[in-house]
Amino acid sequence: MKPAEKVVAYFYDDDIGNYCYGGGNPMRPHRARMCYTLVDSYGLTKKMMVQRPRPREFEELTQFHADDYINFLRGVTPNTVDENMTQLRRFNMGIAGEADCPVFDGLYEYCQVYSGGSVDGAAQLASGAAQVAFNWSGGMHHAKKAEASGFCYVNDIVMAILELLKTYARVLYVDIDIHHGDGVEEAFYLTDRVMTVSFHKYGEFFPGTGALDDIGYGKGKFYTVNVPLKDGMDDDSYRLVYEPIMQKVMEMYQPGAIVMCCGADSLSGDRLGCFNLSLEGHSNCLEFLAKFNVPMLILGGGGYTLRNVARCWCYETGRMMNIDLPDGLPDKALDDFNMYLDTQRLRIAVSNMKNANERQELEQIKTSVLEHLSHLPP
Ligand code: TV7
Ligand code: CA
Ligand code: ZN
User: Fold this and answer.
1) Does the interface predicted TM-score (ipTM) exceed 0.95?
2) CA-to-CA distance for 195 and 180, rounded, in angstroms?
3) Which of 20, 77, 153, 313 has the fewest C-beta atoms under 10 angstroms from its C-beta?
4) HEC secondary structure over the chain
5) Residues at CB less than 6 angstroms from ligand 1
6) What does the pLDDT profile of the chain (378 residues) look like in tens digits?
7) Which residue's CA is minimally distant from atom 12 of ligand 1?
8) Which of 177, 182, 206, 304 to mutate to test the pocket of ligand 1 (most atoms within 8 A of CB)?
């Protein structure tokens, strides 16, 4: 199938922008609304199926998560946290302003909606209704079976992969968020039916896992890939490790579907990140995999310099539709809000920050990963 013939499904619920972690938490669900508005201002919404996700119910959330954890998420409110301190601590949650995973108004609905977008996207790929599905509100890769972590409560990625495994023998997960995709890795650490590949900043950085020699266990040995990186990764350095590794992964593993977590916190100038990627460098990761013509579920993740997050995911929406959006932002985007007046451009500039990744180290990482992959069955 030629790229231009791919049917594109875009999952988006306009209510998503109203959920608020509060207390200065850098995670802002509003980013997805900014992205949708930008995508719409470029006229892309006319060329895809925009759909409102079906919120997932208790029985669906507990396909992966523990019943008592989901029960807690369903029941807790900012007014009842005081009575639930023991459980709150057990599930790694807290109050706004103090915790990565606060209890806020509408928290359960928020989880229902963002997981719905990812599972709906997976189902449409599996049925053949679409070849590319987006859910920029998803990508909550840190959530564990019975624990919230790093702004993530339910793991929509694991749920979407479980949906894909009903149809496909093998699913590939690729994570270019700057943080390690620990929750997804953990969920599939023991199986060869899912290969997880995460590129991330490693060393004194959240969540602290994702060492090069964490490669899976038992049946899952060699089906976990970790690419630990340092500050200042630029487009060329990233490409140097990404392309040969993903080429080999695709040849050896031949997945039926690909799920990607496209956290925009690996971009230059991110409020929490420390890489130096441009939109082209970030988007190249998606385009490289799109060429293999395997159904793709594209999810969000981190991204904390909001105007750049919207730019990145809008640009990538276009690229996956084989459209190279003009750099001058549409008047509508400039008029509606003063958000993009900084440069009035779509693409972003990179900085002159130091790249702490030496070429030889990157070559060693690449060689080591390729060696692990060479153990996979033919
Ligand atoms: C996918 N970094 C998620 C990335 C999750 C990162 C962290 C913060 C942070 C939290 C705040 C806040 C913050 C300016 C930044 C060790 C701690 C330190 C809580 C205050 N400002 C993704 C999670 C990471 C919360 N957590 O991969 C409220 O930064 O480093 C930590 C852990 C303990 C808890 N404290 C932070 O991108 C979506 N948190 C301001 C207010
Ligand atoms: Ca990652
Ligand atoms: Zn992140």
Assistant:
1) yes
2) 15
3) 77
4) CCHHHCCEEEECCHHHHHCCCCCCCCCCCHHHHHHHHHHHHCCHHHHCEEECCCCCCHHHHCCCCCHHHHHHHHHCCCCCHHHHHHHHHHCCCECCCCCCCECCCCHHHHHHHHHHHHHHHHHHHHHCCCCEEEECCCCCCCCECCECECCECCCHHHHHHHHHCCCCCCEEEEECCCCCCHHHHHHCCCCCCEEEEEEEECCCCCCCCCCCCCCCCHHHCCCEEEEEECCCCCHHHHHHHHHHHHHHHHHHHCCCEEEEECCHHHECCCCCCCCCECHHHHHHHHHHHHCCCCCEEEECCCCCCHHHHHHHHHHHHHHHCCCCCCCECCHHHHHHCCCCCCCCECCCCCCCCCCCCCHHHHHHHHHHHHHHHCCCCC
5) 23-26, 97, 99-100, 140-142, 150-152, 177, 179, 206, 263, 265, 272, 301-302
6) 665 589 999 999 999 999 999 999 999 999 999 999 999 999 999 999 999 999 999 999 999 999 999 999 999 999 999 999 999 999 999 999 999 999 999 999 999 999 999 999 999 999 999 999 999 999 999 999 999 999 999 999 999 999 999 999 999 999 999 999 999 999 999 999 999 999 999 999 999 999 999 999 999 999 999 999 999 999 999 999 999 999 999 999 999 999 999 999 999 999 999 999 999 999 999 999 999 999 999 999 999 999 999 999 999 999 999 999 999 999 989 877 778 878 999 999 999 999 999 999 999 999 999 999 999 998
7) 25
8) 206
Q: Which residue has the tokens 């009035």?
A: 344
Q: Hey, which residues does 296 pair with through a beta bridge?
A: 132, 258
